[in-house]
Amino acid sequence: MLVGIDLGGTEIKAGLVDRDGRILIRSSIVTGTGRSYRLIIEDMQKQVEKLLKDYGTSIDGIESIGIGAPGLMNDRSGYVIYCPNLFWENIPLGIMLHEHFNKPVYMENDANAAALAESLFGSTKGAVNSVLITIGTGIGGGIIIDHKIYSGSHFAGSEIGHMIVGPNFYRCNCGNNGCLETFASALAMKKYAVHRVEIDGIKTSITNINAKTIFDAAKEGDQLGIETVDRMIKYLSIGIINVFNLLDPEIIAIGGGVSKAGSYLTDKLKEEVGKMYFTHRIQYGDIVLAQLGNEAGLLGAAFLGINKYQK
Amino acid sequence: MLVGIDLGGTEIKAGLVDRDGRILIRSSIVTGTGRSYRLIIEDMQKQVEKLLKDYGTSIDGIESIGIGAPGLMNDRSGYVIYCPNLFWENIPLGIMLHEHFNKPVYMENDANAAALAESLFGSTKGAVNSVLITIGTGIGGGIIIDHKIYSGSHFAGSEIGHMIVGPNFYRCNCGNNGCLETFASALAMKKYAVHRVEIDGIKTSITNINAKTIFDAAKEGDQLGIETVDRMIKYLSIGIINVFNLLDPEIIAIGGGVSKAGSYLTDKLKEEVGKMYFTHRIQYGDIVLAQLGNEAGLLGAAFLGINKYQK
């Protein structure tokens, strides 16, 4: 049995998972950021112990513990390098969990963990090389190469949201101008539509502007909705063609809240990306919707150790 | 002993190479594009046979034959998928060489072959993950992951020159607007400077405008030279930061004709890229000059088979 933990800024999801990818039992607790990291990690330990007890087993029945979190994780040292949502920097998360449970502990960026779950049990299953792009408030990415997570030489790879794709009217939190997530995230869509209304005086039927209402409005023919979706599609397509031209994966899966727009989104993306192929002499990878939703992070985290050491 | 062949639009360079990466004997013949591909491949066969004879050996002493060419090469089928400089599409290059010599034949994009050579014997030696960016008339790229060439699922990866980084005043040959090579190649620099002179009426001391004279003029304080170099650096830095944020390699090496600008180029790149790091909490990869020059293609081609099957 495996333990998977999805550590987020709002909640910590944990579960016991079997080797077939079934989540046997799970729970969620409030993260409570702002507290000492020791308290948060102690809560996480108690959460896992309660899961073991509730499932009628003990730590002896566990192969390994895996954690995904939204940041840079040094799996070699056991330290969280940087996790802005938790205000964490240089936190010995892996070391503390290992000392407490005396089990192998693996750490990864949560989007990488989700990409692994999709490649083992979801939308990219069977693909040798695949990429997951998660689109919510920001844009995250996970790269699978040769069936394994690829996180780079300093655990800083697959930051697809920070690929610079052109000048934009506002700066990214990372300090740069032109990051993909400032064009194609849910927040970017909202900012653009609000900008068009408040600065350019565009009229719209959308009352509560957010990614969902913008997509809904576009489907119903609202001009600002269409314009905002088209702009998002244009830049996300540039991001996708850049991934194809660099990594040439078999599949790119789109996850995160914005993927709820469904085939309306992927149909438009396929059309737009298709126009930008470098050559029509090869078949490019498919663009699909992620399948595992919110479970991907926990599930992928559970399989980190197995993925790391598989041949 | 290994045979390496660097098949270009102008000349075909071939050589016998030992396992330590020494080129024992080499020759160059004119490609003669426009002729039937059979004639070109027959010339290549004769070229290799002459090298063997001149070196006093025979094909029996050869482990494998490797070919790099500027295009998409299907190493599984033995076909060149597409090689625009040679006007080749679906050409059974690998099959014909294998039938003729009865030896294992390996094919790769020439920038990938060069990246392999740099990682075995040159600027990126020892790095687990590295990237070579070759900047000449166009921009090519080679990606090494876990000491091996990474060319993607359809042999279409590492096209770094076609990463879209922002809108430009002219379109790329690939049909898209905004490709890195339309901002940062030697041709892009020339086109921009000429555009500034002819369209915008800018005055300059540069008489024969090309990448070299532009760099020379910039070093001597010419305004258009400085502006053109700065623009090139700006966009190449965006391309490099995108590679760091996606692949996080230990080293990025800059090769091709433009790399003759030397440390003047890499110093400026390091400064500009350093401003764009996603976080300063990790050490990013180094930016260095490629070391093997024109030999990289031939040398890397020779080692394709060894690289493919190494553990």
Tags for this model:
alpha/beta, 5-stranded mixed beta sheet, Nucleotidyltransferase, domain 5, 2 domains, globular, 311 residues, homodimer
Provide a descriptive summary of the structure in words.
The structure is a homodimer of 311-residue chains. Chain A has ten helices and 13 strands. Chain A has helices spanning 37-54, 93-101, 110-121, 181-184, 186-198, 211-219, 223-247, 263-274, 295-302, 304-309, and strands at residues 2-7, 11-17, 23-30, 64-69, 72-74, 79-83, 88-91, 105-109, 130-135, 139-145, 148-149, 251-255, 286-289. In chain A, strands 3-2-1-4-8 form a five-stranded mixed β-sheet. A five-stranded mixed β-sheet of chain A has the order 11-10-9-12-13. The mean pLDDT of chain A is 96. Helix content of chain A is 37%, strand content 22%. With 311 residues, chain A is of the alpha/beta class. In chain A, helix 8 (263-274) links the parallel strand 12 (251-255) and strand 13 (286-289). At the A-B interface, strand 10 and helix 7 of A face strand 10 and helix 7 of B.
Structural topology:
The structure is a homodimer of 311-residue chains.
Chain A (H helix, E strand, L loop, with lengths): L1 E6 L3 E7 L5 E8 L6 H18 L9 E6 L2 E3 L4 E5 L4 E4 L1 H9 L3 E5 H12 L8 E6 L3 E7 L2 E2 L31 H4 L1 H13 L12 H9 L3 H25 L3 E5 L7 H12 L11 E4 L5 H8 L1 H6 L2
Parallel strand pairs in A: 1-4, 4-8, 9-12, 12-13
Antiparallel strand pairs in A: 1-2, 2-3, 5-6, 6-7, 9-10, 10-11
Helix pairs in contact in A: 3-9, 5-7, 6-7, 7-8
Structural class of chain A: alpha/beta
* Overall pLDDT metric of chain A: 96
Query: Which pair of protein chains has the largest interface, and what are the residue counts?
Result: A-B, 51 and 51 residues
CATH 2nd-level architecture of the largest domain in chain A: 2-Layer Sandwich
- Proportion of residues in extended strands of chain A: 15-25%
**Oligomer, anyone?**
homodimer
Distance between the termini of chain A: 20 Å
* SS summary, helix count of chain A: 10
Describe the strand arrangement of the main beta sheet of chain A, using strand numbers.
3-2-1-4-8
Radius of gyration of chain A: 20 Å
The shape of chain A, in one word, is globular
Query: Secondary-structure element sequence of chain A?
Result: EEEHEEEEHEHEEEHHHHEHEHH
- Fraction in helix of chain A: 25-40%
